[in-house]
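User: Structure please.
Assistant: Input sequence and predicted structure:
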Amino acid sequence: MKQIIDGKLYDTETAELIYTYEPPTSPFYVNYYRTKNDAYFTFGIEGITPLEEYDVKESIGKHDIDRYIELFGPVEEA
């Protein structure tokens, strides 16, 4: 899917799928993507939604710590 938002093209065919979140109580899922220019967006039932890196880190960090570390590097222990 392609969509232009705020003058920028978001394309699920050319962006890297970095994570898929499947809520345990919902039949729907959300795909998280990263573009070659390090822009992030989700693609789900409501279409494409641009995200800030902070939001992506927060979401993936809550659901998959190992994937978070793969994508963003090690995290300092508290």
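The chain has a mean pLDDT of 93.
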